[in-house]
Amino acid sequence: MAVLEVERLSKVFGTGETAVHALREVTVSVDAGELAALLGPSGSGKSTLLLCTSLIEPPSAGAIAVRGRAVWRDGAALVDARRFRRENIGFVFQGHNLIPFLTAEENVALAMQLAGVGRREAARRARDLLGYLEVGHRAGALPATLSGGERQRVAIGRALANEPPIVFADEPTAALDTERGMKVMALLRRVAREKRSAVIAVTHDERMIEGFDTVYEMNDGRLAQKLHAPAPWKRAPHPSTAAAPSGPASSWA
Amino acid sequence: MDLALRDVRRHAGKFVATSAGVGMLLAIVLVMNGIYRGNIFDGVWLIDNTRADLWVVEHGRGGPFNESSRMSGEAHRSVAAVPGVARASPFIAYAAQRSLAGASQQFTIVGYDVFGGLGGPGRLAAGRGIEAAHREAVVDARLGLALHESFALGAHAYTVVGLTRGAVDPAGNPLVYLSLPDAQEVLYQQDSHALVAARAASARRLERAGFGSAEAARLLPLLAPSSATVNAVLVEVAPGRDVEDVRRHVQQWLHFSAYTAEEERNLMLEGRLKKMSAVLGLFRSLLVVVSIVIIALIVYVLTIEKIRPIATLKLIGASNATIVRMILEQSLLLTAGSFAVAYALLQLVRERFPRTLILLPEEIALTFAVMLAGGVLASFLAIAHALRTPPSLALGS
After folding, report:
1. Chain-chain contact of B396 with A95 (C-beta, under 8 angstroms)
2. Which of residues 145-174 of A touch B (CB under 8 A)?
3. What are B34-80's pLDDT values in tens digits?
4. Residue B151 has pLDDT above 80, yes or no
C-alpha cells in the first residue's frame, strides 16, 4: 500500500528570467515498509522534494497524498502543515539536530509531548523507544556527551516518536564513518520493516546504496531513473503476517 | 516540557554569570532610585524635623538654606511680640569642615535656644538633649563620636550628651547641635593672627579719619564685628491662629521675609534640589533604558544561539506558542534573576553607602514591574526573529 504518493509535483523559485525550476513534474510513490533512497548531485532537487512533500516549502504545482488522503492539491495545503508534520513525518538529519539542552530521553519525549502525549507517558515511551534503538543506557545523557552513532540513534528515536507513516532522512550517514553508517542504515531498515514506516533518505553516500529497497536518482529537478526495483527479500513483510525474512547475506542486517 | 527552564538548568553557569552582570546594572538603577529619594529626603530633613510653622529670615532673602540670611540676635524678641505667635526662637546653621573623631569631616552646626526654643534635634537615638548653656553637644552618629566623648571645636571642648541617627543638612552632611551662643562663638571666633590683622586695619582706618593713636585704640572695640547675629527666627503659631495672618504681620511690620514650612520645603525642592533631582532622575531613566536594551540584546543573542534548535522544533511540529513561551520565559527568568541579584547587592551596600538611600517598597516593586515589562518588550525582537526562521534551516537549506 502506498503511504506517500506524489503526482506531477513542481517547484519554481523566483519568476521570469531568474526562475529556477527545482522540481519538474515529479511523480513517485513509496510503500509502507519501503526503504527508498533519493540520489543525485547537489541542486538536483532532492532536498526540495523533501521540503515540498513535508509542506515546509509550498509546491508550485502537483499533488501530494499520504495514506490515500490528499494533503496538497491545486496549489493549496489541505491540512495544517505543522500538525501534518507532527503526526505523519519523522525527520532524521545529517547533523542529528538534537536539542542540545535536552537529554536523549527528553529529545524523544518532546516530540511526543508536542503531539499531545502526557509528560509521564511520553517519558516512559521515550525510554522504551531508546531501548529498542539500543541506546536506552544513554537516556539521561546530553547530546554533547553522546557519540555520533548514538546521537543518530536518538535522532531516529525522535523521528519515530509518534510512529509516523513516513520518515525522511536527510544524509543520515554522511557524518558517520562506514561502520557507524552501516549500523544506522541497518537501523533504518529495521524501522521500515518493523514499524512499517516508509523511510525516504536523501543521500550522496554511495557506500550505502546497496542497503535500499528502491533507489531513485534525481537530476535537474526530474526523477530521472529508478536504479533498481525493490527486491522481494528486501521488502518488509507486515509483522502480523510473517516473521522478518533473513534474505541473502547482507551487511545491512 | 518546559524548554526555557531546561535550557537555563543546562547552562546554569552562563545564566548565573549573565544574571550577575545585568544584576549589577540593575543594582545601580536601584541605588540611583535610592539616591534620588535620599537626596529629596536629606534636602528637607532639617526643615521637616524643625517643625516650625514659619521661617522668618532677612528681608528679601530666600534663606536660610538656599541663600545666606543675617538677622539681629534680638530679632526673635520682636517676632515673639507679633499677635498669634506662641514661640519665636533664634536659629543658626552653617557648614563646617573640621577634624572630628580623627578625620577631617564636613558637617553642619545648628545653634538653637536650648531652653525651650524651637530647632532642636528632636528624637534622639541615645543620650539626652542639651541642658547646659555651654559646652554640650548633640551629634549625629555618622560623625563617629561616642556618647560622653569630648571633641574640640574652635577654642573649646564639647561633650557629646546625645546622639541622633540620620540628622542631616540639605547636602546630606551630619548635624552637630550646639547651644546658640556656642554655635555663634564657633562661627565668629577668629584666629589670633586674623584678629590682630583686623584690629590693625581698623586702627589704620581710624587714624586716616583723623583720630590719634590713643583715641583710635580706645574706639577699636566699637568696630569689632558683631557675633550676635542669627540666620533665622523659627515661629510656632498659637493654636487656632492663622499662619497667614502672622506671616503678613511679620512681613509688613517687622520688614522680614517669612515662609511657611511648606514654602520653605518648596524653596528647597524647587531651588537647590531641583537640578540635582533632575540629573538623578535622568540618570535613573537612562539606566532603566540601558538595562532593558542590554536584556534585549542578551535575550536576542540567546535566541540566535538557539536558532537551529528552534528551526528543528518548528520542523517537528512545535507550535509558535511553544517557541514564544520559551523565549519569553527565558527573558522573564533573566530579568527576575538579575533583579534578585540587584536586590541582594543593594542589601549589602545600603548600610555602608556614603549617601542616604531611601528605598520605598512600592518604588522597588514598580522598578521590578518596569524591568519585567521591558524584558517582555525586549524579547519581541528575538521572538520576531525566531518566528521568521524557516523550519528548513534545520535541514541546512
Report:
1. yes
2. 158, 170
3. 988 888 899 899 999 988 999 999 998 887 888 888 888 888 999 99
4. yes
- Cβ burial A34-57 (10 Å sphere, 16+ → b, else e): bbbbbbbeeebbbbbbbbbbbbbb
Q: Is the pTM of this model over 0.95?
A: no
Please name the amino acid found at residue B118. L
What value of ipTM does the predicted structure carry? Answer: 0.75
Residue A249 pLDDT grade (very low, low, confident, very high; cuts 50, 70, 90): very low
Q: What is the overall mean pLDDT for chain B?
A: 88
Residue that has been written with the C-alpha cell 517676632 in this structure: B79
Which chain B residues are within 8 Å of A106, Cβ to Cβ?
Answer: 1, 6
* CB of A87 less than 8 A from some CB of B: yes
Whether residue B177 has pLDDT greater than 90: yes
B237 vs A31, B80, B241, B314, CA distance in Å?
102, 10, 7, 76
**What are B93's strand-pairing partners?**
B110
Q: Which of A85, A94, A106 is nearest residue B317 as measured by Cβ atoms?
A: A85
Name every chain B residue with its beta carbon within 8 A of the beta carbon of A172.
Answer: none
In chain B, alpha helices (H): 3-10, 12-50, 75-80, 180-188, 192-208, 213-223, 243-253, 261-267, 273-305, 307-315, 320-349, 361-388
Enter the C-alpha cell of residue B281: 532622575
B234-238, B269-273, B371-375 — which one is most confidently predicted on average? B234-238
The chain A residue lying nearest B390, using CA atoms, is A56
What counts of helices (H) and strands (E) characterise chain A?
6, 11
Grid coordinates standing for B196?
590682630
Best probe of the B interface among A80, A89, A97, by most B CBs < 10 A, is: A97
Structure confidence at residue B227 (pLDDT)? 64
Report helix, strand or coil for A198: strand
Q: Which residues of B touch A93 (CB under 8 A)?
A: 312, 394-396
Q: Is the pLDDT of residue A115 over 70?
A: yes
Enumerate residues 185 to 244 of chain A having a beta carbon within 8 A of any beta carbon in chain B: none
* DSSP state letters, B329-351: HHHHHHHHHHHHHHHHHHHHHTT
- Measure B33 CA to nearest chain A CA, in Å: 38
**Minimal C-alpha gap between A197 and chain B (Å):** 17
Q: Once rounded to an integer, what is the mean pLDDT over residues A142-157?
A: 88
